[in-house]
Amino acid sequence: MAIVKSGKVVIVLAGRHAGKKAVVVKTHEEGSDDKRFSHCLVAGVARGPRKVTRGMSKKKVEKRTKCMKPFIKYINVRHVFPTRYLVDMDLKKSVDEADLVDADKRVDVKKNLKKIFEDRYLNQKAITSEKKAAGSIYFFQRLRF
User: Fold this and answer.
1) What's the confidence (pLDDT) of residue 145?
2) CA gap 131, 86 in Å, rounded
3) From CA 141, how far away is CA 136, in angstroms rounded?
4) Does domain 8-140 correspond to CATH entry 1.10.275.10?
5) What distance in Å separates the CA atoms of residue 124 and residue 141, rounded to the nearest whole number?
6) pTM higher than 0.85
7) If pLDDT is split at 50, 70 and 90, which confidence band does 13 have?
8) Cα–Cα distances in angstroms (integers) from residue 11 to residues 6, 55, 142, in the given order
9) Mean pLDDT, the chain, integer
10) H/E stretch holding 63
11) Which Pfam family, any one of them, does this sequence belong to (predicted)?
12) pLDDT score, position 94
């Protein structure tokens, strides 16, 4: 039984993105030929959106979300901390594993991710499921401890 499933919000524990939140795109329970350990492909926010208050105009809110910076990488399952939250962003279609090998295609994947994250951040009220809405709110908040 796997805890780390696609759509689960996790916290990265090791490496450059330690302490950042990410969403699991795909898991490899048995490992693969090049990575002989259970690992998962995660897409996360390296730099989150800036603080927004109620008095700000829509234009200013959009400008403050533009600074969001995504990351995507393979991580050992032991180096992620699964949270109780789920997000219903459909990242499997936008992230093709073959594109991650080439550096130029990887940039395009990150641009698509940025667009998806920005859309979700700006349209959080459109989420129907209460559980998924809570996950989306949690994903874009700064980690406090």
Assistant:
1) 72
2) 7
3) 9
4) no
5) 12
6) yes
7) very high
8) 14, 31, 11
9) 91
10) helix 58-65
11) Ribosomal_L27e
12) 86
